[in-house]
Fold these 2 entries.
Entry 1:
Amino acid sequence: MNPVSESLDQPVDGSSTGLGRRAFVALSALALASCAAPTNTGTGNSNAKTALAPVNPPKPTVAPAPPFPGTVARARWSHGEPVAKLMNPMVPVKWITIHHDGMTPFTTSDMALTASRIELIRNGHRGKGWGDIGYHFIIDRSGRIWEGRALKWQGAHVKDHNEGNIGIVCLGNFEVQSPSDAQLKALERHIEVVMRLYKIPATRIKTHREWVGAKTACPGKNLQKFVVTARSKRQFA
Ligand SMILES: [Zn+2]
């Protein structure tokens, strides 16, 4: 059990995201349609964090984040800083979980539009009271990999199963569209990099919907199919 976790129940205030109320409501609606389950999603323990939270923000105890060459830096897309006191330090990494963003279909490779899409996700997650975007990596339509939440922090992407779990999200809604070839290649390649780095076996690569208790279609039937096939062919190695 973690002494602290990202709050799911603290007051939600649009002003905390720097957004107007209407924009905030719109973002919340989008967030509900995203990969996370409709309620109470993304993080682990949601109780008692206030009472047990340390006075000082938690310090990362694991620093497993080497540079990933070619990754688009967080500063290229984010309009806000992570809030350390709302996040838990990462513990030894054991899992990789694959997601889609589950919002409206997304087909462009344009850098600015992609950056906006990722920022929209971050805003949705911040609006839930989380410290940053919940995923560690984002893969766009042309196969670029964007840096999400720093790996020194536990992610917020699978309810009750975020400890030691790296979250990778592919942009798009794969219930209604297909992942691009470039996106799939990049996903496979990046999973292999992360597997090697943390010595994660293929049996510990999951999609969001495969977690016990997950009430979600994430990562959408078309990406799910790819992962199932890739695993059966032992493509992740
Ligand atoms: Zn998901």
Entry 2:
Amino acid sequence: MILSYDVVVIGAGHAGCEAATAAARLGSRTLLITIDMEKIASMSCNPAVGGVAKGQIVREIDALGGMMGRVADRSAIQFRMLNRSKGAAMWSPRAQCDKHKFSREWRHIVENTKNLYLWQDSVVDILFDLSGEKPRVKGVKTRMGVEIECGRVVLTAGTFLEGMMHCGEASAEGGRAGDQAAHGVTTSLLKLGFESGRMKTGTPVRLDARTINFDALEVQEGDAEPSKFSYDADTEAVSNQLPCFMVYTSKRVHDILRTGFDRSPLFNGTIHGIGPRYCPSIEDKLRTFADKDQHQLFLEPEGRDTNEYYLNGFSSSLPFEVQMEALRNIVGFEDVHVYRPGYAIEYDYFPPTQLKHTLETKLVDGLYFAGQVNGTTGYEEAAAQGLMAGINAHRSLCGEEEVVLGRDEAYIGVLIDDLVTKGVDEPYRMFTSRAEYRILLRQDNADQRLTPLGHKIGLVSEEKYENLLKKNTAVESLISMLRATSVKIGEIDSYLISVGEEPLTQGKKLYDIVLRSNVTIFDLSRVHKKLAKYITENNLDKEVIEQAEIQIKYRGYIERERYYAEKMHRLENIAIPENFDFNAMQSLTIEARQKLSRIRPTTLGQASRIPGVSPADINVLLVKFGR
Ligand SMILES: Cc1cc2nc3c(=O)[nH]c(=O)nc-3n(C[C@H](O)[C@H](O)[C@H](O)COP(=O)(O)OP(=O)(O)OC[C@H]3O[C@@H](n4cnc5c(N)ncnc54)[C@H](O)[C@@H]3O)c2cc1C
């Protein structure tokens, strides 16, 4: 082998780019091998980043020192904070991105990261050292016959492994439209005893703006005061936002789509892989909600310098002529030209219960999996896993303790724990409902939760860490000021009445007034001179004010969740020995013995989350290990 690196990352998608930049920035000589260098971090589907629970993940990636938030901010064309009208735990940032700029920004980062090298080729084989007790990764072999030696491999091959695309009765090999599939890697892993499965996903048509009648469509603007993902001071919120649009299907459109059902690869048995429940195709929606005569669709620009639009909600693998006829019956699309048809893709994934929490495989030392190959769907879920795999590949190589995030620390912790503990039976996407501590895991406090860790391991710059400390101090000082400052009867009555709150019957501290649900610190500052002066003199920005307000309003809920999280920690701290023989414990149910032997939890906390392991089984294990 003439080429030798510390870490090889297979695939420059969303997981691979995060993995490679993290490992390289931490100091590992890293090679990022990808099939096509022109398509780095390509947005295979929706040109958007974030959304419900996914936006929280992007903030966490940024807080830990990953790149997705910066790239999204730099390529954003519209920004919205979803769920603003709900509680702070539900606020979810989402940006429509210029997909070409997104990809260019990533390539710029990859090409300019110290210790990181790019190689365009397809990996066809992973090489193992089988001389020890347990297989250990030792390199990769590419389609051009090049063998590359390395200490760690991170596999992030996305939808490419044995990829097969479908549109109506036509099927073709491919990793996504316009890209070749990747062969060899699955076989190489199956030989060692890995299990694989098939999943599927789909994408909608892309439309030519010149042929759309925008006057007939409902406009959806971005936020009037857009925010951003990254906590870095050198990124900015988007300006000159572009609008999105809403369109609707109709009974006529549905009738046309139904004429293609007998030729749908989804319904006629051609596609075997399981699709994403929460990103269904339009044909799936017609079957599941048969009584609905209308579905809302979103028309989203793919960039600033292109006429291409993405039709969100119209994912389909029906025959192209059926997609086309249905489209032309949607108001505004009467003369529409289609750039690319919708299609579905089937690909190999590896059930993630074969992984440790570090994302290293249990079967092979030094081999990590991240992204869609683990049965997830979505750029954000992929990027988060890539970041953790890159960090851990580097740290294990240096003999440093690997990083595992808890379920009460980050959505990333929930994601990985769900994957390795529960496995997947359909493409996994993140939701706020998957997190039991979602009041702790808010988008606004990702920096407080994760930046100190990112700084400690060397991914977060001194400047970013200092900014966090300054922000924390400013928030604490503002809260103290609100606690110490009184409001007299009658002083702010007209404001309180205007927001639907009762006037004061006695003097109160500002802090107690902020506790009222319709009061905001920002509004209060307009009617309370001392507060306004404090904010101006201390140059407090929106983030500090918002943070103080959330901490005041949600204090009770936050403390309660912390209490439950602490209780759970007690179980997390009880370790189960690596080779413990669960089958020998007759007092466990047979189902529990089977599941525990398969997943091999490392703590009692993890064991308690395995489906099929009951509280009674946990009590048995508590008696055994709890002492
Ligand atoms: C048709 C389609 C529809 C989709 N629809 C949705 C959707 O509705 N919702 C959603 O959330 N997500 C959807 N996705 C999935 C989304 O694209 C992925 O979740 C995300 O891109 C996964 O990131 P990743 O880094 O794991 O893989 P990818 O972004 O797929 O990147 C994989 C990279 O690895 C490279 N590669 C693969 N094999 C090799 C090899 N052997 N050697 C070298 N390089 C290799 C590829 O060239 C590519 O650059 C869709 C994807 C496709 C293709």
